[in-house]
Request: fold
Amino acid sequence: MKKIIFLAILSILISPAIVNGKLPACTLEIGDTFAGGIVFYLAPGDECHGLVCAPTDQSKDSKWAEADALCQFVRVGGYTNWRLPNLYELSQMYNNLYKAKLGGFTNGYYWSSNEYQQYYAWDMNFANGQKYSSGKGSTGYVRVIRAF
Reply:
């Protein structure tokens, strides 16, 4: 009986999660397919959280209001909680996926969720990575994202 208790205590003491007080490291990498999309951002820390974008564009010629409304109807990989990326997230997609030739992005203007004054919203030209404030009536590409 003493041997069983000793072995049980020993197995608890040498458990990696107990020894260093951390959860196992996240094994995901930028560009991996996960949670219905392509990983383009991994949050720092011990847990595995980040952002994925849909594997393909949802539209190539949407006005900003249409792009925003489109998100509520998107169902990709079994998930329905997709949204437009903000400008920072769009930059992460450009830097981490587009530049690495991942994700099948085009050299067009992608909408962000950020507005600029009443009649403008921010978008990014994936041909050069520049950010612009474009009229909400102009058209652009839509690539939705979600957190995991």
